[in-house]
Amino acid sequence: MIRVLVVDDQELMRVGFRMVLGAQDDIDVAGEAGNGNEAVRLAGELRPDVVLMDVRMPVLDGVEATKRIVEAGTSKVLVMTTFDLDEYVYAALQNGASGFLLKDTPPDDLVSALRSVAAGDAVVSPAVTKRLLDRFIGSGQLAPRDASALDVLTDREREVLTQVAKGLSNAEIAEVLFLSEATVKTHVGRILAKLGLRDRVQAVVFSYETGLTRPGGV
């Protein structure tokens, strides 16, 4: 059973999420919070598998709440936003969120995303993530990282990381690089371990920060 904490300052949104998630046999809505402070407290008490986190909230926003929850190691965080080019989302990703979705995401996609995050995967929307990072690099808000950080990777691992940054799945990367899916999975695991990254979302951000992937790149 996947235990979820729903966090949103709008009660109607929480009710909607509860209805969608509560209809699933494998998902239990363990609790609800209306601001970041409540989210941090309840995450510590309930220790849900996933926190579905709004980013724009009073008292304590979802960015800081995400940071505290991830640092405490209590739960994974999936952030929700109304705008796909939201500076709060970029900050949440930097602070350890396992991905983000738009609030108008179809119910089936929301459920699928929660299951993925609970299973240890990251939710990376290729088009949205790319636009988000392109925007912040262009505005100078993305903190650059020394490209020498990539030196620990083999040439093949760099190729795989480049494809990960495009938002491709392991199966898609396997097709592009003419590898087996199992081999790609092994490469991704080694990349994350070598670079000290939690998941594919952080790998995407890292790729941009080091210049391996550039704004407007395909």
UniProtKB/TrEMBL annotation:
Sites bearing 4-aspartylphosphate, chain numbering: D54
Keyword annotations of the record: DNA-binding, Phosphoprotein, Transcription, Transcription regulation
Domain annotation HTH luxR-type: ranges: 146-211
First and last residue of the signal peptide: none
Pfam annotation, one family: Response_reg
Domain of life from the UniProt record: Bacteria
Domain Response regulatory: 3-118
CDD domains, alphabetized: LuxR_C_like, REC_NarL-like
PROSITE patterns in alphabetical order: HTH_LUXR_1, HTH_LUXR_2, RESPONSE_REGULATORY
SUPFAM superfamilies the record matches: C-terminal effector domain of the bipartite response regulators, CheY-like
Protein name from the UniProt record: Response regulator
Source species of the chain: Prauserella oleivorans
